Amino acid sequence: xxxxxxxxxxxxxxxxxxxxxxxxxxxxxxxxxxxxxxxxxxxxxxxxxxxxxxxxxxxxxxxxxxxxxxxxxxxxxxxxxxxxxxxxxxxxxxxxxxxxxxxxxxxxxxxxxxxxxxxxxxxxxxxxxxxxxxxxxxxxxxxxxxxxxxxxxxxxxxxxxxxxxxxxxxxxxxxxxxxxxxxxxxxxxxxxxxxxxxxxxxxxxxxxxxxxxxxxxxxxxxxxxxxxx
Length: 229
Description:
Blueprint: E1 15-16, E2 20-21, H1 24-28, H2 39-54, H3 61-68, H4 72-76, H5 82-108, H6 114-134, H7 136-142, H8 158-171, H9 177-199, H10 206-223
Antiparallel strand pairs: 1-2
Helix pairs in contact: 2-3, 2-5, 2-7, 5-6, 5-7, 6-7, 6-8, 6-9, 6-10, 8-9, 9-10
């Protein structure tokens, strides 16, 4: 299932574009170390770093050409316009989110059974909110639809991680078949709504935000009528 909107420092270990791996070592490379095959990835990662630090509004193709040490003409070989670049940075931002969710699930529990599945589901929701709290600029761009060529699917894909977790809970009998039909959008909407508020810094002090986060995650469990069998 696709990420639910129109177009479709954290480790990214899946291929981007033409076979380039986005890893921690990729993030740390200087511009001069990128050869032609890596230029698209270099530009996306430079854009990702820029947006995380400065926000979306000041992102530009010529600026990234300077950062990566290439000519503007070289940049336009990979991106038809600024919208195309922004869409690619948005995709990379969602992959940062997906990686945070996946890491949180793996850290929560690797065991089998209902209790472990519930722990992974909660950890995933917590990581989603943390993405808004800790990386508000990436959160903002991640969910904007840009007028750009269709890109490859996000990997890891946050929506697919949610569906996988809910499917596991359903198969274990923790979520009824009836509730499972509406569970993805209910869970996504509740968690995303609070994460968006957190990203804007309007959820109070750190202590108040943590308490509200716990309340939201508990409310999701209640709304889906999740049971530990």
